[in-house]
Amino acid sequence: MKVVKCVLLPLLVLIVSAYISVSIPKLSIPFTAQSLAVFVIAGLLSPRYFAIVILSYLGLGLVGVPVFAEGTAGLSKVLGNSGGFLYGFLFSGAVIVYSTHKESEIPLTRLINVMLLATVVLFVFGVGHLAIKLDLQKALLYGLYPYWKMAVIKALLAAVIVWIIGPIASKWVTSQQI
Length: 178
Description:
Blueprint (H helix, E strand, L loop, with lengths): L1 H17 L2 E4 L4 E4 L1 H11 L2 H16 L12 H5 L3 H18 L7 H26 L2 H8 L4 H27 L4
Helix pairs in contact: 1-2, 1-3, 2-5, 2-8, 3-5, 5-6, 6-7, 6-8
């Protein structure tokens, strides 16, 4: 039962979040709820379960299951314009999970700082990947400027969600044996 609670349910939430999107047509870089889902999942799970969820998500997408933004999949998506954001989920989430997993109750201000730092890490991977494909000016124009304000809002929202439901989720997850 713990595997369902700690892997399948978060994976399903992440997949559904990928379908909540708006795109910038010029470069087809979708704005989705994925980072919000990744940040909340990272704030609630152990490093092991977080890694299983994110690697499963990326693996499903790589083999062709339409789990990425707007129902896309495949290696071309990971190597494409938004690829850095996809593999950046692993690294930005790692910032969160390793900053929070050993504490049962984390002050909201600390969660906000961690989520904002994770947002910066995500943009480093996303914009960095895009800069390699295009150039830095275009990467900032298409990968950062349209998204940074909403990314900050999502980071703040993720912090509040984890702060509110973290203690409850912790008890819920540990209430069942593996």
